[in-house]
Amino acid sequence: MFVLFHQVEFLLFLAPVLVGYWMVPKRTRNFFLLIASYAFYASWNWKFGGCLLASTAVDYCVGLGIHRSSQARTRRRLLTLSIVTNLGMLGFFKYSNFFLESLVELAGVFGFSLDIPTLNIILPIGISFYTFQTLSYSIDIYRRKLEPTSNLVDFALFVVFFPQLIAGPIEKARDLLPQLRAPKFLKDVDWKHGLYLFGYGWFLKVVIADPVGVVVNEAFGPPSATVGKLEVSGSRVLMALYAYSLQIYCDFSGYSKMARGLACMFGIRLSRNFYLPFFSRGYIDFYKRWHITLSNWIGEYVYMPLYYYLPRTRLFGAITGTKARLYVSAAVALLVTRIVFGLWHGASVNFVLLGLFIYCGQWASVLANQLTKNSSLRNNAVHAAIARPLQSFVMIHMFAFAMLFFRSHSIEQVEEFCKRLLTDIDLSELLRSDLIWSMYLPAAFLFSYELLQYRRDDEFAILKLSGYRQLAFWLTLATFWILRADPGGGAFIYFQF
What we know:
The chain is mostly helical. The chain has two domains: 8-188, no CATH class; 192-496, no CATH class.
């Protein structure tokens, strides 16, 4: 029986773990937390533990081997072992059927008929997150950015730390390992911020994300379905796209906040994974604020190596001028990273198209910035009052449309819904009275609260308000909770990745 952060059963797991962690001797705390983390993972499916242990063992040994070797060839071979092991496991469990189906379709294009059965594979929970995390450990040691740890317990805990094991944030060893090794004292724990993050993340999940999901499922069908609905009006599709934008943000950012809050209770600070993305100044800025740890990981370990490597290849030999090479290199590297970003989320053509859409949106944002770069209005009050909110407005609509690729069950559903968005729109459907309570009021509350954070540039701004204002905020949360909470809601959306 798996345990979810927003279920009461999780509190029954958390309470003894938290008490035990602070009661056991300091030298055994990491071992205690490691056992608790393995127990948490086993509550999902103990059979998945094999991949987790393999990734841990390989990268622990590879890290020590790379550090101790002075021969470049040996270091490269060890790094290759880490890459092949981690990406091999991820590729087999997550992408096998996608590649087999693509092979069959490609053969059909050339007139060949292949009959390849799909594999009955269950995706190990959290594998997309912990393989990236362990892989970055070996790469950083290879690049001499990190000293390996010889303490197997510390390293295993870095991999399996339960608050962020299932769905991130994706931490780098150079940020998390020093915290795990450092001595901790109960008096230094930031309980106020930890409890706030956990509670507010819980609110986002059960009070906003899960109830809004009902509106989404009316159009797309349930997430568990293999084939989505097709006979849906364009107005319902449009409404569902905005609803899903709200749902996935509250669901995933809610999980990330809960993970950070839990880590705070153990004296650990995890990376912030969302930074007010809907207040972004364009599409490029948006993906610096959305799923930040994944974007940073792909940027550091995929984009930057490609950006510097490509200009030195023969393929770029025909391009004259250093500046031109770098521009083309940036374009190609960004294309690859966006496809990786899309495929990381799922093994289907939909997610490839999602990556391509993001890529085109980011280049459109670059071109728009270039066209207005020399505008006399760019740096004055008019620009600040009109242009910047307009950028955010356009970005929100682009993100909502991108969710069509993200939420649809198939490319056929994407095609059909695109047709309906162009031919079957009745805006009066967007004014249905039931949507005011199910979608618009929660969205207005979230916008108002995040506007406060944005203006004060402080994630914890609400905790610094005067007593009456803070009381009004908590009463509003309590009212929404009583009237809207769905304690029996489903798993977090990003658990499927």
